[in-house]
Amino acid sequence: MTLNGTPIRTRRAAPAIAILTAVAVAMAGGGPTLSPARAQDSATRGMPIIRDAEIEQLLRDYAQPILRAAGLAKQNVRVVVLSDRSFNAFVMDGRHIFINAGALFDAKTANEVIGVFAHETGHLAGGHLQRLREQLASAQTAGIVALLAGVGAAVAASRAGGAAGDVGMAAILAPQAAIMRSVLAYVRTQEDQADHAGVKFLNATGQSPKGMVELFKRLSNEVLFNSRYIDPYMQTHPMPADRVAALETLAKASPYWDRKDPPELQLRHDMMRAKLSGFLERPDTVARRYPSSDHSLPARYARAISTYRHSDLRQALLQIDGLIQAQPNNPYFYELKGQALLEGGHPAEAVAPLRQAAQLSHNNPLIEIMLAQSLNATNNPKFAEEAVGLLRTAIAREPEASDAYAQLAVAYGRKGDLANADLASAQAAFARGDLKTARQLATRAKTRLPIGSPAWVRADDIVNVKPKTNANVQ
Ligand SMILES: [Zn+2]
User: Fold this and answer.
1) What span, in angstroms and rounded, lies between the C-alpha atoms of 157 and 380?
2) d(CA 37, ligand 1 centre) in Å
């Protein structure tokens, strides 16, 4: 598991995302700042994103049937996990469903996360963001956007703790309360529609809407019992009691109301939660949640991760080997072993388990990038060619992975291919959003590459990228 492509080291404060800031983003047209050749994904740039092969596979398995039922199978909608402990899930454009690690952790069953995806897919299928944009555009928006962005900041400030945020919010809200109410009423209509669509997609896939209802109930109770607590999910999905009641009536009419998730899916869900705990929580919290008396696979997984991250590598390796013994075909146990060895300064020993993980995962690109990183870190030039091959195929499937380009530059450099090393460094800078450095490196790469070759053309593309401004933000 990595954060923005690098090992998770410290917990970063994640940005507060509220409906109001989401609306501001919607007004900015999704906010791309670069318009590269094809692949770079500026929608997610700058966000604290968790990348993990195992979790992403599970979330794809949750989302795909729902997206198919919604007629969105061909849109390549990606689920993106944000490193944020609060409960939140939202859509900001037509191509991503964002979900916080906190929401995955709080969801006790697979069915609850599937319910959240069904609701968010309801927003996507209804084209809600586009309509919200139109609605706002019809209301002399420039001022509103500024207002909403201001309120978003005030909400963030109040979440960060302190009365100052409340005061700021009141001051901003007072003169514009009427506009605010009409926007929120509109958002509320969209929420009802998304609930409806969500239940329809769950019915179409033969899954229970119970998780969705239970989760929403839990969330609305938290708000009732603690009025000072502002949950970002409540900001993006206003949830008055009548909405929950309407959803419950609709959901209970489902023929699948009592249907349970398959046990193997629930186990994968519990493994995901254990993994998030092991990587993101303090060792004493992990130990409390998963005491040594708990011999379940998820508990052993959480403890092994926590041990490798916070105490003893050799002890952790013993625990991971125990997991491998229990499930010898689980690619993610070998991946964990490789990651622990690599981060513990033993790249040569990491190579074998990572090769195994790559093979068992059918060449998952994130695992192949880590394998290439280990090969590079051995400083053995005989591995350079293999690293180049792994990284090029991984990048073809993960074109946004800036760390993969950086590793590719290292591998080319070790081969003595300085032209391609420059190009890869330029691509790394570009994927990070550092356009100035990207241009400089691409310009130098052009002088070293045969004019008109595919690599030269790629370098030329980067040299000629124009920064795109958000023209519709006034
Ligand atoms: Zn919603």
Assistant:
1) 50
2) 33
Nearest Cα neighbor of 41 from 26, 56, 31, 54 is 31
CA 217 vs CA 42, 240, 248, 351, 404: distances in Å: 35, 10, 9, 47, 42
Distance 198 CA to ligand 1 centre (A): 10
pTM value is 0.81
The Å distance, Cα 121 to ligand 1 centre, comes to 9
Give me ligand 1 centre to Cα 213, in Å.
Answer: 13
Residues 6+ positions from 174 with CB-CB distance below 8 Å:
none
Q: Terminal CA-to-CA distance of the chain, rounded, Å?
A: 39
Task: List helix spans (H) across 174-296.
Answer: 177-204, 210-225, 232-236, 241-252, 263-280, 283-289
Find the length of the chain. 474
Angle at CA of residue 123, ends 120 and 128, nearest 5°: 150
pLDDT in tens, 316-350: 999 999 999 999 999 999 999 999 999 999 999 99
Distance 232 CA to ligand 1 centre (A): 11
Mean pLDDT, the chain, whole residue set: 82
Cα–ligand 1 centroid distance for 129 (angstroms): 11
> Which residue type is seen at 390?
L
CA nearest to 374, candidates 399, 398, 391, 362: 391
> What spacing in Å lies between the alpha carbon of 189 and ligand 1's midpoint?
10
CB 54 within 8 A of CB 332: yes
Residue 425 contacts residue 446 (beta carbons within 8 Å): no
The amino acid at residue 99 is I
